[in-house]
Amino acid sequence: MYKSKNQITKKVKYGKLKIYIIISILILALMFILVFKTNFFSIDEIIVKNNNEVSRDVIIAYSGIQLHNNIFKIKLSEITKKIEKNPYIKTAKVSRKLPNKIVIEVIERKRLAAIFYMGIYFIIDDEGYVLETKNKVKDVVVIEGFEINRFSEGEKIDLSGNEDLRKVLTLCSLIQKSNIDIKPKIYYNNGNINITIEDKLKVKFGNGENIDYKFKAFLSILKYLKSKDIYTGVIDISTNGYPVYRPFDE
């Protein structure tokens, strides 16, 4: 029976299509077996980057990732949320490194100061987020005088004088960046900010306005006093005028 050229062409195309479909099904089946039925995509390493405050083991524990699980069965967004529940973790980024590695990159919150209130030290960062609470602290600036209304680890602290706290935290950052070898204490009282060094030298910063300028003036005076072996007295830079130093007995 005679078949037209058009019929033959259609038959060839149909035959090719069937072959393509069969090959595609085979490829998908092989991919499914490779992904879900073999260990090729089984997690064998978790890489943690940029962590200094929080250990690798703690971050992995927060993530909930288990070695030897299939790399495609974990939800990256859920893992990220779990890691960011740690108060010291500001942000986290979780990614797959095929075929069998998970990479966790974090940006941490850094300890800046400790607010002392009712016998407890509230460790906070430069934004006022509570990182943890302790009964004792060292190597950190201690702040006294604020009344805490509410707190939760990993959240911003709520206290009386939130705007003044911002000024105090700026002062803490300046202290941290300076080369002062002894951590001073900061006292807040009715809007006024004072610091003491070893309970011997008192510095009055007033209401905290122009804190950068005042801190530079304080450092200059402190350097001069040390050159004269003077370690006690009062440095008054509470106004925008000239700073004043006087011994305690005056």
List the helices and strands and how they pair.
Layout: H1 5-36, E1 45-49, H2 56-63, H3 76-83, E2 89-97, E3 101-108, E4 113-117, E5 120-124, E6 130-134, E7 141-144, E8 148-150, E9 158-159, H4 162-177, E10 185-189, E11 192-197, E12 201-204, H5 211-227, E13 233-236, E14 244-246
Helix pairs in contact: 2-3
Question: Can you put this structure into words, describing what you see?
Answer:
The chain has helices at 5-36, 56-63, 76-83, 162-177, 211-227, and strands at 45-49, 89-97, 101-108, 113-117, 120-124, 130-134, 141-144, 148-150, 158-159, 185-189, 192-197, 201-204, 233-236, 244-246. It is 32% helix and 27% strand. Helix 2 (56-63) packs across helix 3 (76-83). The radius of gyration is 31 Å and the shape is elongated. It has 5 helices and 14 strands. Strand 2 and strand 3 form a beta hairpin. The chain has 2 domains: 45-108, membrane protein fhac (Ubiquitin-like (UB roll), Roll); 113-246, Rossmann fold. The chain is an alpha/beta fold. It is found in: Membrane. This is Cell division protein FtsQ.
Number of continuous helical runs? 5
Strand content: 25-35%
Main pleated-sheet profile:
9 strands, mixed
Mean pLDDT: 90
- What number of domains? 2
Quaternary arrangement of the chains shown? single chain
Q: Give, in spatial order, the strands making up the sheet with the most strands.
A: 6-5-4-7-10-11-12-13-14
CATH class group of the largest domain: Alpha Beta
Rounded to the nearest angstrom, the radius of gyration is 31 Å
Shape: elongated
Contiguous low-pLDDT stretches (5 residues minimum) are none
What structural class is derived from the secondary structure elements? alpha/beta
CATH architecture of the largest domain: 3-Layer(aba) Sandwich
How far apart lie the N and C ends?
A: 125 Å
Q: Classify the helix fraction into a percent range.
A: 25-40%
How many strand segments? Answer: 14
CATH topology of the largest domain: Rossmann fold
Pattern of helices and strands: HEHHEEEEEEEEHEEEHEE
Pfam families: FtsQ_DivIB_C (PF03799), POTRA_1 (PF08478)
Main location: membrane
InterPro entries: Cell_div_FtsQ/DivIB_C, FtsQ_DivIB, POTRA, POTRA_FtsQ_type
Protein name: Cell division protein FtsQ
